[in-house]
Design goal:
Elements (H helix, E strand, L loop, with lengths): L5 H8 L3 H13 L3 H14 L9 H20 L11 H10 L14 H20 L20 H4 L6 H5 L5 H11 L5 H5 L6 E2 L2 E5 L5 E5 L2 H8 L15 H14 L10 H15 L2 H8 L4 H5 L10 H4 L3
Antiparallel strand pairs: 1-2, 2-3
Helix pairs in contact: 1-3, 2-3, 3-4, 3-6, 4-6, 9-11, 9-13, 13-14
């Protein structure tokens, strides 16, 4: 299924204000989920802060929320254009008690997943305001209780797994893993690397939100990339989308005997952050390397060693 039906989205963008309002009101009044997804996509790509630079993964996540929230609203008597002031909280309560549907997962949805759904629902109402359909903000005062377990504990960095898995990767997959685990790239950044982005021992990374940064490449990463040939006219090294890369990497982890340790590509990025912090003891330098705008974000990427200050307190 194609996420963004460009003709539909462009048609909405090019409507007059009155025609757009009519279309959005009709979609919300009839709980037309597909039409509301298109209103959301039109808003996200033209009216949101990031506009056309909004990532495909964000668009997909928000579209998934609309496909979840709208049927729930219809089933529970919520008028989308005139929601009650407690309806946002009702939806959050519903999410908090919903069983997790992930493979091999038990219990209820995680706080991070709930936060993602709520962010999508808020975006839907921003889109409806953008379209002139309603001024309602049912999620304005609705809060998602934070997860008391730190993310670095729930999803710690890979440690020995990286070197164990690499022999089970073909050259492109091995290079992809090293880009995440040694160069600290997000998986979407790694999949978009091109030959022209490499200048000696430096890589220009086209990052989140359209931000570019320069990342130093270690010799193992340079050697892995040197083995690859571009697979597109633009010089890209990879043709996979996120799900194809995830499928291949999971197979490599399983072949290496670490199938149960697979925690996604983000744990590889945390591997690089943790190793660099242990070498530098400097969150600012690690944050610049990872492309973070806040050091507080960087702290969530570093697994601290037990008794890290033992030497410092020895002579207190």
């Amino acid at each position: 299924m194609t996420l963004v039906r460009s003709s539909d989205t462009l048609a909405l963008i090019n409507l007059t204000d009155q025609a757009l309002r009519v279309r959005a009101v009709a979609a919300a009044s009839t709980y037309a989920t597909d039409d509301l997804v298109q209103v959301l996509l039109a808003y996200m790509t033209t009216g949101s802060i990031k506009g056309a630079r909004t990532s495909e993964r964000t668009l997909a996540a928000y579209a998934m929320t609309v496909r979840d929230f709208v049927p729930w609203a219809q089933h529970n008597g919520v008028q989308l254009l005139r929601p009650g002031r407690r309806d946002g909280g009702r939806y959050i309560a519903h999410l908090q008690t919903r069983p997790s549907a992930g493979r091999g997962k038990t219990g209820t949805l995680s706080a991070a997943t709930i936060a993602q759904y709520v962010a999508g629902a808020r975006a839907l109402y921003r889109a409806l305001r953008w379209a002139g359909a309603t001024e309602a903000q049912p999620f304005e005062d609705a809060h998602v209780p934070p997860d008391p377990t730190p993310g670095i504990v729930k999803n710690p960095p890979y440690l020995s797994e990286i070197d164990a898995v690499l022999p089970h990767c073909d050259p492109p997959l091995g290079a992809l893993l090293l880009l995440c685990a040694h160069a600290g790239l997000r998986i979407t950044e790694a999949l978009n690397v091109r030959r022209t982005d490499i200048q000696g021992a430096q890589l220009t990374v086209h990052g989140k939100g359209g931000k570019n940064r320069r990342v130093p490449l270690g010799r193992r990463v340079r050697a892995a990339l040197h083995e690859l040939s571009p697979v597109s006219a633009e010089g890209h090294f990879f043709t996979w989308n996120y799900h194809q890369a995830k499928y291949r990497m999971r197979k490599a982890f399983t072949a290496a005997g670490h199938g149960e340790s697979w925690r996604g590509f983000h744990a590889a990025r945390k591997h690089s952050g943790t190793r660099l912090y242990r070498a530098t003891k400097d969150f600012t330098r690690v944050g610049l390397f990872l492309g973070h705008s806040s050091v507080d974000t960087t702290r969530r990427y570093v697994a601290m060693e037990d008794n890290d200050v033992q030497n410092e307190v020895e002579d207190f």
